[in-house]
Design a protein that fits this description.
Structural class: mainly alpha
Mean pLDDT: 77
Largest sheet: 2 strands, antiparallel
Number of strands: 2
Number of domains: 1
Order of helices and strands: EEHHHHHHHHHHHHHHHHHH
Strand content: under 5%
CATH superfamily: Amino acid/polyamine transporter I
Low-confidence stretches: 1-37, 466-481
Radius of gyration: 22 Å
Oligomer: single chain
CATH architecture: Up-down Bundle
Shape: globular
Distance between the termini: 27 Å
Length: 481
């Protein structure tokens, strides 16, 4: 079993000339016998890794959040600038995670990175937040959105029953077999990509388009620098969340040091292009006054383009797209819980896999938390809460690129962030801008986010083995010549 380090102790790092590496337990084998499978036994190919990124990114956010943005901003130019900035943030983040993931090709995402860069406690906090806010809450949001779209087709349908049922069914799918789950994921995601492309092409052929212009006026620039714009970034960054998803299953990717950065790059680039175009189509086909405050913006746009019958068909396809997102979240999320549980004795049962390799109890726990949130929370409040908490730890991970470059410049880096140091700086500025305004303008969801982090810290103190407490920085990394 991997040993939990004392509070304040940094992980040991080998700095040999022939092959420096981060914490040997991440690359080879921990003391309890947990070993990363050889490349030929890793089920996630490069194509599947790209598909995982696309499936995680394209989903609930692009089909639901525009109505909240329009409610606060009345400028088409400002709204489209939101999506452009979201693309810039996702692209910069993907490049930074590519460097971290190539150095530490173990499943777990931020949990793995932050444990190694800062302290195991920080990694545990990110894993705890990922379990609650990173995956269970987005699963609940996607399920709620699926219920809304299904209700638009069949008004008498119980939306809550639909939402809960799809969580249960997809969790069972990913409990059966990892490879089957990958194939299922690939199939529904390819269908979702075709849907998005068709929707964009047909949207530009709409017979009654809205009169919108992309030429900015002075008032448009005023909207871009307004508090409402900064707050709306939370919806956009949430829609783009998933650009880092392949890093959560790095331990199951074939040749992760090479394929992980490629998957993150191409997945984020493709989705960014689709997002900007499809949101233009939404604004192009539906008056902003009708979109304001609505969740099912995809249905409203399809109704405008195709009429009532065509809208029903397109809404069914959008439901398939949401199922793809749910499937991807349900597949990826338990890997964080599993990796975190491998490092803590008292959570070890959550790392248990069945014969097919699926982390059984981690999947079940995630499903139960998601169902609870589906039954108790409101859509907008959960979305803001999720956006705030995820932004905190994504920013810490990207900041870790600076920390490792300064602290360990000689570490082997199979992939280096393009445009460093500008790339991570842009990411931190964008996310810091959003976080600052959220704390000021939406203090309650931000407070809940901070309380989630605080509860994780308390949980870590209870679960971690009792050890002498040392001050941060006393344990110095040793260079082995």
């Amino acid at each position: 079993m991997a040993e939990t380090r004392p509070w304040g102790a940094r992980p040991q790092v080998d700095l040999t000339r022939s092959g420096p590496r981060v914490d040997k337990s991440l690359m080879e084998q921990d003391k309890g016998g947990i070993q990363s499978p050889p490349d030929e036994n890793r089920p996630v190919t490069l194509f599947s890794a790209v598909i995982i990124v696309i499936a995680n990114m394209i989903g609930i956010g692009v089909f639901t959040t525009l109505g909240f943005q329009v409610a606060g901003l009345h400028s088409p130019f400002a709204i489209l600038m939101l999506w452009v900035l979201g693309a810039v943030g996702a692209f910069c983040g993907a490049l930074c995670y590519g460097e971290l993931g190539a150095m530490m090709p173990r499943s777990g995402g931020e949990y793995t990175y932050l444990s190694q860069i800062y302290h195991p406690a920080v990694g545990f906090l990110s894993g705890w937040v990922s379990m609650v806010a990173g995956f269970a809450a987005p699963i609940a949001l996607a399920a709620i959105a699926l219920g809304e779209y299904a209700g638009a087709i069949l008004p008498g349908l119980d939306k809550t029953v639909v939402a809960v049922s799809v969580i249960v069914i997809l969790s069972l799918v990913h409990l059966t077999n990892v490879r089957f789950g990958c194939h299922f994921q690939n199939l529904v995601t390819v269908g979702k990509i075709l849907l998005i492309v068709a929707f964009i092409i047909l949207g530009f052929m709409a017979t009654n388009p809205q009169d919108i212009t992309l030429t900015p006026s002075p008032s448009d620039w005023g909207s871009v620098f307004s508090p409402a714009f900064a707050i709306s970034l939370v919806y956009v960054f949430y829609a783009y969340s998933g650009w880092n998803s392949a890093s959560y299953v790095a331990g199951e990717i074939f040749r992760p040091e090479k394929n992980l950065p490629i998957a993150l790059f191409w997945g984020a680039a493709f989705v960014a292009l689709c997002y900007c175009l499809i949101n233009y189509v939404f604004l192009y086909t539906v008056p902003m006054s009708i979109l304001a405050g609505q969740i099912d913006v995809g249905y409203l746009s399809a109704k405008s383009i195709f009429g009532p019958r065509g809208a029903t068909i397109m809404t069914v396809l959008i439901c398939v797209a949401l199922i793809s997102s749910l499937s991807s979240l349900i597949m990826v999320g338990p890997r964080v819980t599993q990796t975190m549980s491998e490092d803590l004795n008292r959570l070890r049962f959550l790392a248990t896999r069945n014969k097919s390799g699926a982390p059984v109890y981690a999947i079940i726990l995630q499903a139960l938390v998601a169902i609870f949130l589906t039954l108790t929370a409101t859509f907008n409040a959960v979305l803001t809460y999720v956006g705030f908490t995820l932004a905190l730890f994504a920013s810490l991970a990207v900041l870790g690129v600076f920390v490792l470059r300064r602290r360990h410049p000689n570490l082997k880096r199979p992939f280096k962030t393009w445009g460093y140091p500008v790339t991570p700086a842009i990411f931190l500025l964008l996310y810091g801008w959003m976080i600052g305004y959220l704390i000021i303008e939406r203090p309650l969801p931000s407070l809940f986010g901070l309380l989630t982090v605080a509860s994780g810290l308390l949980l870590y103190k209870l679960l971690a083995p009792a050890r002498p407490r040392s001050s941060l920085g006393k344990v110095v990394d040793k260079s082995i010549s």
